[in-house]
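Re: the multi-chain job from yesterday

Posting the exact lines I submitted so nobody has to dig through the queue logs.
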Amino acid sequence: MSTSASTRLRTAAAATAYQKQWFADLSRRAADGTPIALANADAPHEILRAMGIPYVVNQWWSSIISAKRAGQPSLSAVAARGLPDDSRQYDVLPLGAQDLPEDLAPWGGLPEPRFAIAERSGDVTHKIFEQWGRRAQTHTFLLSRTGAVPAPEGWWELTPNGWETVFGAERLDLLQGEIEGLISWLEDHTGTALDRDELRRVMALANEQAQWNRRTRDLIAAVRPLPVAVTDSIPAVMVPQWHRGTQWAVEAARSLFEEVSERVDAGVAVWRDEQRRLMWIGRGLWTDLDMYRSFQEDFGAVFVWSMYLALGADGYARYGDDPVRALAARFVGLTDLLYVPPMSSSWYVKEALTHGVDGVVHLVADDTPGAALITEALEGAGIPVLDIRANNADARSTGDVRAKIADFIRARVPARV
Amino acid sequence: MTPRVTLPAIGVVGNDVPRQLVLAAGALPVRLAGGWDGAVDDDAADLLGAADLEAARILTALRRGEFRIDALIVCNDSQAHLRLYYVLRATPSGLRVHLLDLPREDSQPARAFVQHQFAQLLAFCEDVSGRTVDAESLASAGRAERDLGRALDRLRQRRRAVPSRCTGADALDAYLQAGRLDPAEAVRRIDATGCAEGSVAPSAPGTRVHLTGSNHPDASVYRRLEDAGYTIVSEDHDTGDGAWIGTAADGADVTRVIDGLVQAHFGRTTNSATALAAERARLTVTTASDAQADVVTAFIRELDDAPRWDLADQRVALAREGLPLVAREHVPADPTVAVAELADALRKREVTVS
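And the result, C-alpha cells for all chains:
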C-alpha cells in the first residue's frame, strides 16, 4: 500500500472512528441501564475493565470537550456552580460539560456516571470528584496519592519487573489495600464479583500493549526524517491506552507499529526537508492541533516527540504474580514519572537524546511540579528549552503559543547543516 | 529569625507533624513561615513554579540559611509543600530533609501507612537528636504538649468572650509562637496574651469576624483588619485555630503512642488542600458559630487554589446559620490593597472581591 506524508495514519483514523463508535455504544448501554464510570487518568482502570464496567477517562473526555470548542461554555457552567473556572480546568471541564444543553455537549454528552473514581492528586482533584459524588446518580471513590519517595533515575529499566524497588513497599501496600477497597465497593454496588483470573488477563494484555508501544517509540526515535506526525501518533496511542487491557487495544498498538514500519520502509517523511527536531513536553494542545505542523514550512521544524507514546512505551508495563499489587505498581507513581525530578528530568533527557531532539517546547501547567528542574536538566544536556506557562484546556491562556515557538526557533534552535 | 535553643531544632513546613514525637526524641519542632512581606528569590519562584507564594518565601529563606534549624520535616499537606520537598531533595543544601506523607481517607491500609510514616518520622528525629525515645520521654513530651494545648484553649476562651479579651492578631502571634518555642516557654507567653477576665478589652468592640481561606504566616493582615475596626475572634486555617498543636497520646511504648496519634490524625479536619469542601464548610460553620462571629471572611492568596473550591459550600452552610461570607480571592504578593478592599467589602457586606 502506498503512503505519503500527507496521508493520515490508518491506525489513527481507525482509532478515532473506533472511539466514536465505542462512545455511541457506551451511551446506548448507559441509556439501557448499564452503570458506567468516570475515572481519572491515573485511577486503576483495569479493575473496571475486569469487572465489565464501561468507563470514560476524565482527561480524555476533557480533550474532546476542548477539541469540540465546548471548553468555554463548560467552564462557564463550572462558574455558575460557584466554583473557580480558572483552576484545574483540564480536570473540571467534564463536570461543567454535564450542565451543557445537549446541542452544545460533544457527542451528545457524557451519560451520567454511576461511579466517579480518582486519586487525590494535587490540592483540588478530590474536591472536583466530591462534586461528582453529589450528582443524583453518581458515587465517588477516592484513592490516596503518596509522595514520590523514592524517586530513582533510570526507572524505565526497572519498572516492568523491579517496581517494588522503584516505588517502595509501603506505598504499594497502601494503594494495593485501597484498590482492594475499591473492588469491594464496586462489588457491593454492582452485585458482581471481580474475577481475578480476568484481571490477570487484563494485566497481561496491557503489558503486551506496552511492549508494542515500546517498539513503535524505539523505531520513531531511530528514524530520520520523522515518519509520522505527533498529531497522528497521539490518537493512535491514546485511544488504545484508554482501552488498555482489551484485545482491541493490543491489536491497535501492533497495527501502529506495523504501519510506522511500513512508512519507514517506504521512506515516508512528515517533512522531507527536516532541519529541526522538536520535543513537546506537557499535555497536548487540544484546542490547536494544527500548531504542531505549523513550523514545518518556515523552519523545517517537526515535532518528533510527545509524552503520550513515550509514556505508553516506558510507563505502563508491570509484571507480577499478584495482579492487584502489580496494578498498584502501575499507578502509584505514574504521574511522578512525568513530573517529579530526578525521575522526570532523567527520563526527558534520555528521550530527547535518543530522538535526536534539537529543541524542546515545555508546556507548564499550574498543577504540574518540577518544571524548572526538567528544563534545567535538558539545558544541561545542551538542549534548548522554551517554557510556556499555560493551561492546555483553556484557550484563554494559549493564544500566543505559536508566536512564542517561532521566536524560540529563530533565537535558539539552529537548523541542522 | 528563630532563636537558637539548646535542643536541636527541626524545622516543620506544614501542619501534619505530631509534635509529641519530635519532643520525645529530644528535638524542638519549629514551624516555619515565610511572612506576608518575605522576600522571594527568582530562583526559588522558578523552582517551585506556580505555587502558593508562601512556599516560595519559605524556600527563599531556607536557601539563604535564614532559619536556624538542624533538619527539616516537610508535610505533604499541599501541592506547594510537596513541590518544596521535591526541590529541596533535588537541590541539596546540606540540610537533612524528611517528607511526612499522611493519607486522608481513613481505612486500614491508610492507618498502616500512617503508622509507618510516624515511625519513620520518629527515627528521623532520633537520628537528628542522637537520642532514643522511651516510655518516659514520650509521656513527658505528651504532658508538655497537652499543657500547651490547654494554654491555647484558655486563649481561645479569652478571645471568644463577648466582648473579646484578646485581639486576633495577638492570638495569631501566640499560635505562631506555640509552633516554634519550647512548650513551657510558649505556655508562659500564651497566658500573657490578651486580658484577664474582668479587665478591659484591648480591642475595639468591632464586628466579630471569623477568618477562613489561606493560612497566615504572620499577624500583619490581622492587624490591618483589626485597625479597620474588626475583631478576628476565630479562624479555621492551619496556623491559627486549625494548627495541630496540643495533641498527645498515651501508651506504654512507642507503638501504642503512635497508634493513638494515628487515631488523632484521622479524627481531625485537615487543611483545605487535603480535606473535602464539605468537611471544610462544616469546620468553618462550627468554629464561626462557637466564636459568635458576625461575619465570615475568606482571604485567599493567589495560587492557593484549594480554599477557593470550598467557598461555594461554605457560603451555603453559613447562610443556613445566617452568617454572611465575604471573600477576597487572588491576593497578590503585597496584600496591602487587598486588605483595604476586604475591609471595605466587609463594611458593605459584598460577597466577593477579586
